[in-house]
Amino acid sequence: MKYTWWILQIVLMLVSVFFFFFGFDLLMASYGLEDPFSFIMTFFAANFILLISTALVFTFVIKMVRVFIRIQNNI
């Protein structure tokens, strides 16, 4: 019970890292498109995925660091 929060945070962070790499791969694939409309839509979608996944990774890391510091100060 005590470690479920940590496991959940790590799993969510790993999912966010997966979507970061997915967004990066999608961004690189968008440069191979020949239709300008498809390029623009894919480019902005990939950047949106990168932005959200990066923000989530930083959020989970900051949350875990804050809890770890709080645990260390209470002991």
How does this model look, in words?
The protein has one domain. Helices cover 88% and strands 0% of the residues. The chain has helices at residues 4-30, 36-74. The radius of gyration is 17 Å and the shape is rod-shaped. The mean pLDDT is 94.
Strand elements, count: 0
Low-confidence stretches: none
> Nearest-angstrom radius of gyration?
17 Å
In oligomeric terms, what are we looking at? single chain
Q: What would you call the shape?
A: rod-shaped
**Number of spatially distinct domains:** 1
User: Number of helical runs?
Assistant: 2
Percent of residues in helices: over 70%
Structural class: mainly alpha
As a percent range, the share of strand residues is under 5%
The profile of the biggest β sheet is: none
Write down the secondary-structure element order. Answer: HH
Q: How would you summarize the topology of this molecule?
A:
Layout: H1 4-30, H2 36-74
Helix pairs in contact: 1-2
